[in-house]
Amino acid sequence: MVRLTRFSLLSSIHNLHQCLDSLLQANKAWANRMKANDPMFFEEHKKGHAPKILWIGCSDARVPANEMIGEPPGSVFVHRNIANQVVQTDFNCMSVIQYAVDVLQVKHIIVCGHYDCGGVKAALTNVDHKSPLENWLRNIRDTYRLHKDELDAIKDLTGRQRRLVELNVVEQCLNIFKTAVVQKRRVQTHFDALEPGSDIPFSTPVIHAFVYEPTTGEATKLRVDFKQYLTELHDIYDLYKMEKEEEPTPLPTTMIQDKDGNEECVTDVLTKSLSGEGDM
Q1: CA separation for the pair 103, 153 (Å, rounded)
Q2: Is 58 known to be catalytic?
Q3: CATH for the 47-224 domain, from 3.40.930.10, 3.40.50.720, 3.40.1050.10, 3.40.50.450
Q4: What is the gyration radius of the CA atoms in the chain, in angstroms?
Q5: Which of these is catalytic: 108, 114, 185, 186?
Q6: Full-model pTM
Q7: For residue 187, which of 258, 247, 260, 93 has the smallest C-alpha distance?
Q8: Ramachandran assignment for 239, one of left (phi > 0), alpha (psi -120 to 50 degrees), beta (any other)
Q9: Peptide bond connecting 73 to the previous residue in cis, omega within 30 degrees of 0
Q10: Is 257:271 a contact under the CB 8 Å cutoff?
Q11: What are φ and ψ of residue 54, in 5° steps?
Q12: 93 assigned to active site
């Protein structure tokens, strides 16, 4: 057992205060630099924020959201957790997505994983990491199970870890597509974009799969055929419901009527909405 003497305890407290003081001094220096570059920078923040991007990334300290894509404060709405998970029972993440889509009306959602991810590495080991961490890692283990044949065929452990990082990002993007709030927004903007004279160029929010390489600082956008995935998920995850106006007692349905009165399944509309998506 380590026993702290009065002197060592006071010394530790002193060092802690020094560390905090240096952080506060660094903050003041940063604020002064921002005001020197743009005297109205913080005045503009009084108006609130209207970010165009929701970033869902890993808590890893090597993966800074704003800095790595060159966006200033105020332009990216950020949610981070271990291994950039989008878990349907995580009220924190679900609330972030709902607020970003419904209130902020972000145009893009980026799920960014990174190579050398500790969470992914841990999920590839047969070790009980104890609750609650092990409960969280089970979501990554489930992704491993879904793609087990492909991953087990990769004999190099580092290569297997890197591929699971990529597959994990794709699965989290699909989890975003499964949410009712995203389905509703994409369906609405899809039909709005089809209206004559509409200035809406594409359905939003657009979902992007990114992977970051910490050793080079470079991010890559994964090529993912979301249309194929949505076709496979047809009917299972249709959550957005419209009301049938012709019924005396409105009944919920996952069929949607277009402007000509034709009915389509939500998944079919979501698939069509993926055509002509804009770049960031």
Answers
A1: 44
A2: yes
A3: 3.40.1050.10
A4: 23
A5: 114
A6: 0.82
A7: 258
A8: alpha
A9: no
A10: no
A11: -105, 125
A12: no
The one catalytic residue in 93, 112, 117, 173 is 117
Residue pointed to by tokens 């952080």: 23
267 HSE (CA, 13 A, CB side):
15
CA separation, residue 118 to residues 21, 124, 164 (Å) = 31, 10, 12
Instruction: Convert 151-175 to b/e letters by CB count within 10 Å (16 or more is b).
Output: beeeeeeeebbbbbbbbbbbbbbbb
CB 114 within 8 A of CB 212: yes
Annotated catalytic residue: which of 49, 62, 138, 145? 62
Domain ranges of the chain: 47-224
Q: List per-residue pLDDT tens for the chain, 280 residues long.
A: 455 566 565 666 667 777 888 888 998 998 999 999 999 888 888 888 889 999 999 999 999 999 999 998 889 999 999 999 999 999 999 999 999 999 999 999 999 999 999 999 999 999 999 999 999 999 999 999 999 999 999 999 999 999 999 999 999 999 999 999 999 999 999 989 888 888 888 899 999 999 999 999 999 999 999 988 888 877 788 776 544 444 444 444 566 666 666 777 777 777 777 876 766 6
Instruction: List the structure tokens of 241.
Output: 């419901």
Number of separate helices (H) and strands (E) present in the chain: 11, 9
Query: Is 190 in the active site?
Result: no
Q: Is 234 a catalytic site residue? A: no
Tell me how far CA of residue 91 lies from CA of 98, 101, 206, 211, in angstroms: 10, 15, 22, 25
Whether 185 sits among the annotated catalytic residues: the reply is no
Residue type, 268: D
How far is 280 from 210, CA to CA, in rounded Å? 12
pLDDT value for 45? 84
Pairing mode, strands 252-253 and 242-243: antiparallel
